Structure prediction request, 1157 residues.
Amino acid sequence: MKFTIGWLKEHLDTKLKDNQIIEKLTDVGLEVESYEKVSSDLDNFKVAKIINAEQHPNADKLKVCDVDIGEQNTVKVVCGATNAKKDLLTVYAGPGSVIPKNNMKLTVSKIRGVTSYGMLCSESELNLSDESDGITELKSNKYYDKVGKNFFKNNTEKVIDLSITPNRPDCLGVRGVARDLAAAGVGKLKNVSNIKIKNSGPQKIKVSITKDKNQGCTIFGSCLIKDVTNKESPKWLKDKIISLGQKPISAIVDITNYVMLDLNRPLHAYDSDKIDKEIIVRNSEKGETFEALDKKEYKLDNDMCVISDKSGVLGLGGIIGGTRSGTEFNTKNILLESAYFLPRSIRKTSKLLNIDTDAKFRFERGIDPQSIEIGLDKAAQLITKICGGKVSKFDVQSIRNVKKNKINFKISLFEKIVGFKIKDKEVIKILIDLGFEVSKKKSELQLTIPTWRPDITQPIDIVEEIVRIKGFNNIEILEPQKNKIKDTLNKQQKLFHFLQRSVASKGYFETVTWSFTDSKLNNLFKENYKEIKIVNPISSDLDVLRNSIFPNLAFYLKKNLDRGFKDISLFEIGPIFKDSKPGEQLTLIGGIKSGKISRLNWNEENRSVDVFDAKKDTIQTLVEAGYDRHNLFIREKSPSYYHPGKSGSVYLDKDDIDPVAYFGEIHPNIIKKLDIKTEALVGFEIYLDYLKDSKLKLKDSKSKFQFSDYQKSDRDFAFVVDKKFKAQDLIEIISSIDQSLIKSVKIFDVYEGENIPKDKKSIALNVTIQSSEKTLEESDLEKINKLIISTVEIKSGAKIRS
Amino acid sequence: MSDIKKIKNEFLHKLNADLNIESINQIKSELFGKKGKISNSFKNLGSLPTEERKKFASDLNFVKDELQEKINKKIQELEIKEINSKLENEKVDVTLPERNIVQGKIHPVSQVIDEISCIFSEIGFSVEEGPDVENEHYNFTALNTPDNHPARDMHDTFYLNDKKELLLRTHTSPVQVRTMLKGKPPFKIIAPGRTYRSDSDQTHAPMFHQVEGLHIDKYINMGHLKGCLNYFIKSFFEVDKIKMRFRPSHFPFTEPSAEVDIGYELKDGKIVIGEGDKWLEILGCGMVHPNVLKNVKINPDKYQGYAFGIGIDRLAMLKYGINDLRAFFETDYRWLNHFGFDPLDVPSNYRGLSR
Prediction:
């Protein structure tokens, strides 16, 4: 919503300074987006100085000038003036400028083989005088320090641009803004002039509103204006239109626009000679078409509110007019429309047809249904004044009476909601100033709501009106109450924050990426999840919700590799989507690691990252979060985007069905497809949702502190087992032989090759044995040794290596 | 001079010489060996008359201790000398780099969410969450934004089906609705999370973060709202004084509604929050609309309260001097390293929000 202070003052008597008015606008909830001059075409004309003027190589009468226009480099301008010479101060017009005299638009052009950037202007070209002989000569004593400055002063008034919230259609007109300011004490709202136009004779074009179901138009007011002379608008009107950044079209169109901006009363002018017999406001039929003023052909659906005549659709009511009945400069007779359309109908139609116009914007928010005649009157007065013509009587068709809404307002509600009190008298004054009709009954006000305020429907809206006009700064700051209803975080949230920092502490950089991704990338990682398309994606490569965290991580990993980084550890904690309903999402940690460990380190040998790095980070994170390593169980099963032989899944317990994590090297095919250039790439995923309910509070999970001071003994074993036999099973077999004696089992070597059969491997273990009751004697140790060997051999088919 | 004294003097003299470990051991055995002089003297003890025996024994023990101590000291000196001479050859260049350090980073958005949670925890708020995918009822209708309400246009919504029933939440406000539906008042919650709008340019990202706040009880009014936000902003920016301005605005789910600006000034191109005469919009808030309360089966005559929504990314930008919103989501390793936080920097009330 744009207007100038001058325009505002046509409705408001005020002594306040401009900046005070600006401040008050914001205070009452009409946010000022900007307050500045609209740039003008004349801003292109600069004071300039000729630095050098040389003879044009190919033309005797032309010169090539180097011109200082106040920028870093001079510009070359070809000039035919005899007075163009070194050191002359003159007026320069750059490419794009429009020369005032002949409305010629300048472009960069070649003149006899020399490129000229703009032009040096004569006084006549600038409409300053008739002097057309030679370029303007500026007095050096006045202009020597003005090089580069605008030659013309920008005389346009500063324009206020308000951002009007959707609940305030009344403030889409200058008068509405003035009313709010007046209520807030800025001044007095001027009365609308009582001089009504002298109209005579009937409005001869019959208007009817059909009683269709869901008819979108309830009132249609109109008048005929005969024998007008449409023309360019007078300067004052043009200036008003231009100052708002709009283009003047013709007096009739400009006047309807002006009334709309002034009173928020959209109007439409038809060339009445182009109307076939009568106006019928009705619902459209599917398949009807018409060409709108935006030069587009629209194909209508059922039940759109159209203004039509005997030949067909003229326009979409309250949205856009049609070209068939549009006014032109040669229009002689016009029909002026001032109607009320229902917001719901406007919104539905404009959405379906994807049309956005100023009128639509206003009707959709709600126009004052009582402004029909005021609008006709104001526009008709201006039209007859500027274009002449005779105005008929106003014809108002209506299928529903305007009902004024009433509210009973308990004054005490104000204090209850905002926390401070104001006098009843002040409440009443504010409401009256805003246009309410007020009658007081004890502690209650009976209010009639002004018809221009469709947003006000219940007592709480009245509270807002009073407090916004009174000023939000009157609300007292109350100290926050510290009482707690619930723990700040629940268990799952605590786990989230813990795991997040746990993973980061292992050298991973946390990233946050979109919850959506490229379907092509997503397909590599989506497994059995459903693809969830976004109907209106921001771009075609962000077209689906992610089924995995890896597509984005892989994408950005590649970007960072391309930046020259090699050893990258990234992770994200966030949602992945299983399906498209609310709640069908999982919270995951996904981490990836590329390149080498200890690259370029003088005392550590470097090696590529591998599955056991990913496994370590996964397991350590779980252990730090409180899950006992001894209960964690590893299986080979993993999603297809992992290397089939170098990946696994982690279960909180051997008997669990759902894994809580996957880890492994990323499948080489995927690395190839994504063209990721790195020595090695591993990753892991932890499913937070599956970690649920598996933890006691620390105070409950700490068991009694028990330890043994008796001597520990270590024994080493080497077993030859089938290659496929799992180390985890071997450890499990040994650990469960005698849990009271076997304290730990450590694998310190795995060997395949010479001296070992091809389908076998040798696993070397160290077993720590300790009793909590006594110092074990050699014979006890011997006994357990034998038991270990025999049990392993029986259960695993292994042979002890001698 | 008695024999003992003689022995003592003789051996002390011997021990004062520059000796190696072998010669000391030699002396040791000369004194305390099976046939050592001190050992022999003890053996002779029995042959002495009773009255002399006591004194002699005492003298002998005294000499024994003295010599023993001298020998021990001598051995210790030698050992230390030996280690020291060995160390001479064990020098390394300690200016060589240490073994590799790995330092991970926490994303500024996560850090700021922790900071926010910490601040609100202090005044009794708990954290709630809701799904990223919402249906239009929770995202709009229940929040007093029925279909055909122009306010829906203020949100450029991502839809997941053609009927426009399923969508990515455009704000964290649906969490209000979900929280109130599943519980009973009073409510005192914040809800941080991801939000989505199909809008993308220098200052808008299609995904961003908001934190919703909701406090519903019997007598919660706009003064409490002001107090809560005043406390939050001061705590978050870690300043003693702030300038705060409530501006009337409009959100369908609050009435009265306000936008909140805070005062700032530019110092060396950096935004300094607190003083200054410039205003910066940082959040929207208001009293929960009675229609919203009715929609979640709460009687608006009995209960009332406030709600607010703050852009987390924007808070992070203001506090930590980050200029570009888009960079938050571009996973530039250099950016993450620069703006990321050490994982051990957990915001807390007793150690402070930030270092």
Remarks:
- Chain A touches chain B through 99 residues (CB under 8 Å).
- The longest strand of chain A covers residues 45-55.
- Residues 56 and 78 of chain A are 8 Å apart (CA to CA).
